[in-house]
Prior knowledge:
37% of the residues lie in helices and 19% in strands. Helix 1 (16-26) links the parallel strand 1 (2-7) and strand 2 (30-33). It is built from nine helices and eleven strands. The protein is of the alpha/beta class. It has a single domain (2-283), classed as TIM Barrel (Alpha-Beta Barrel), CATH 3.20.20.30.
Amino acid sequence: MRIGIFCIQPDANADPAIVAKHAEDLGFASYWVPDHIILPVTSTTSYPGNPGGGPDPDYLWQMPDPMIALMRAATATKTIEVGTGVLLVPERHPLHLAKEIASLDHYSGGRFKFGIGAGWNKEESEMLGGDFEHRWTQVREAIEAMKVCWTEHESEHHGKYYDFPPVLCYPKPVQKPYPPIFLGGIMFDGQWAKRVFHRIVKWGDGWCPVVASVDQIIDGREQIRIIAQEAGRDPASIEIRVFGAQTQWRTQAGRDALAEADVTDYSIWIDAADTDNICRELDGLAKELF
């Protein structure tokens, strides 16, 4: 079982270099960070992680840039994987993002995992160039454009959202053909998002769901298997990494429940918000889980 950590607020008070190195030394396998470039003061959309209707958590507007945080973590470590959980693709131009990702993958020695999302905040997305009502169509096209940049010497793309002539976009990623692309997933009212598994099978490399129970993992895996076989793709080529929500999978019993469901890789949400307390939290988790 490979266990990673998810730091919701990897900033100066929770230094990614120190935290990731400490996690690596304890035996954790991956270090993940979230993404919000800005958060509008007034918004028409509700944070899906706050179903109670009270104030949204402050961490939504306190997140540093994930690529900079992960670069700091990667250059302080040797083996731990670094990943976005998840990066909001419509809020960045794919040419710029392709170069950032390839650079991070290059400097980390091929340890970057690209978790992607389309965003939930309409105003945030639109301020930064997102077509909110068709954001997953935009994400798909952005991924297509980035794949060209990662795999071809002269890269060009002509689409609805992005259009550029042949360009030289370097460096190329260490991982071939490119870092694995993970799509998130979460159930609402007992249902997965309508097209999430089709997207994974068609142009993704993995699934990184947040689940309420092991049964949801089993259900999602079975849907992926069916869709992949129908599309002529080997279901085993799609990696599953479970993202823990707050309080989840922190005990031997939780770890063992995931193992019984054939989950081999998951991450734990870290509660502490500063370097010293995070390191102490990691010490306790390592003692419990390893």
